[in-house]
Amino acid sequence: MTTPPDHPGGRSFPGGDSYLGRAVVDARLVTPEEVQACLAKLSQLHAAGKPMGLADLLIKAGFITPSQLRRLAHPAEDSMAGAMPQIPGFQLLRKVGAGAMASVFMAKQLSLDRVVAIKILPKRLSEDQDFVARFYKEGRAAAKLNHNNIVQAIDVGEYGGHHYFVMEYVDGWTVYDDLAKKRRYDEAQALDIITQIARALEHAHARGFIHRDVKPKNIMMTKDGVAKLADMGLARQASDAEAATAEKGRAFGTPYYISPEQIRGIADVDFRADIYSLGATFYHMVTGRVPFEGSTPSEIMHKHLREALVPPDHLNPSLSAGLGEVIERAMAKDRQRRYTSTSDLLLDLEAVSHGEAPPQAHVGYDDGLLQNLADGAEEVAVGRGGSVQAQGLPSAAGSGGRSTTLLAILIAESVVILILLIALIIAASN
Ligand SMILES: Nc1ncnc2c1ncn2[C@@H]1O[C@H](COP(=O)(O)OP(=O)(O)OP(=O)(O)O)[C@@H](O)[C@H]1O
Ligand SMILES: [Mg+2]
């Protein structure tokens, strides 16, 4: 990897571009691949006589904000990076990670003498009264969920202007960490992890919870191979699309797994949004590529809304046909074409893991096709395995009635043909 010299007039970083490249990856703001792409771009710019530094390019391309750069360059200025925060009842042991929104610490809960994880939110979130109200309501409700594949929420609280979320400490790593290292999972391993997370979602969905942010960074793995869904019940700061573009920082904003309806900001986001995001996560795990790439959050979101998915087995031909069908069904742009329940998705995942065809992947398929024929839909692309994905966004209103009528006509026609055939046979035998 060749590193062009810093642009003399631009922003600099202590230690130079290669140090900055490492720092942004360590802080999970940018992936190693994205840093590589930026460095290649810098080489091109340098060769074209327009030298630029990595810091400027990362900011210009929307990967980081100037304040994120400042915090990386001078970590002591970050209030969370200095002395350990003090929270009564807990002894904070060490920082175990940080996302774009918060820092996570390993801590000892003194009353029960057990190790927990505490996510501490920045003070600025305290000013948003709506967010704070939802944070307490959702956090306390989530603490009532109990499932081996969900990171157990324990409590929510506030101290010194910081709101915090206490949860089970998971001694392990995230699926994101694995993807950063090994690019993709083999089919059986990915199926196992996705099945565990689908079980977690089935449990949560049955109790009225929608996660809204299923992604590789929110799937933690233990050394024993148990997958745990993190951040269940953690209120989102803003609407999903706003959250995805907030701060223009990649860590908070990269909407690689967001469902089309969350992008549109519809009010009644339901369990099917989680099914889409789980499908997108599955896609990334087995192909090594996110479903839709783009250089800005809005470009990626546009593709979620409009661009047809490249079938996963086009990127990884060793995948079984059934697995591709499950992902395509889970990631249908129109949520009416996705699985109608998380339990149905689980049935298919279990069938594929036994080497069988997924029985639910095609349920409703004929219905959808008939509706498209009836509506005279212009753009219907028939994908691999016969799955149908509309390029446009057909209205579902009245679909059940129209397709039932068409089905009835088809059945009536078949019955008439059958009667005529029988009559012909009788006439011939006489
Ligand atoms: N319960 C936990 N036990 C142990 N480590 C955890 C736990 N929850 C989170 N972590 C660690 O802290 C890191 C930061 O988590 P956080 O949820 O703040 O951000 P994220 O999900 O990685 O990213 P983003 O902010 O983009 O959503 C995680 O990547 C993980 O390594
Ligand atoms: Mg998280």
Account of the 3D structure:
The protein is α+β, with helices and mostly antiparallel strands and 430 residues long. The protein folds into 4 domains: 58 residues, no CATH class; 92 residues, 2-Layer Sandwich (Phosphorylase Kinase, domain 1); 183 residues, Transferase(Phosphotransferase), domain 1 (Orthogonal Bundle); 60 residues, no CATH class. The chain is 45% helix and 12% strand. The protein has 17 helices and 10 strands. It has a 5-stranded antiparallel beta sheet, with helices on one face. It has a 3-stranded antiparallel beta sheet with strand order 6-7-8. The protein has a two-stranded antiparallel ribbon with strand order 9-10. A hairpin with a 5-residue loop joins strand 9 and strand 10. Helix 7 runs antiparallel to helix 11 and helix 16 crosses helix 17. Bound molecules: adenosine-5'-triphosphate (ATP) and magnesium ion (MG). The site of magnesium ion has 5 residues, from loops.
Compact description:
This protein has 430 residues and is an alpha+beta fold. The protein has helices at 17-26, 32-47, 54-60, 66-73, 129-142, 175-182, 187-206, 240-245, 250-253, 260-264, 271-287, 297-306, 312-315, 321-330, 342-353, 365-375, 399-429; strands spanning 90-98, 103-109, 114-120, 153-159, 162-168, 172-174, 219-222, 227-229, 380-382, 388-390. It is 45% helix and 12% strand.
Keywords:
Phosphorylase Kinase, domain 1, alpha+beta, disordered N terminus, five-stranded antiparallel beta sheet, binds magnesium ion, three-stranded antiparallel beta sheet, 10 strands, 4 domains
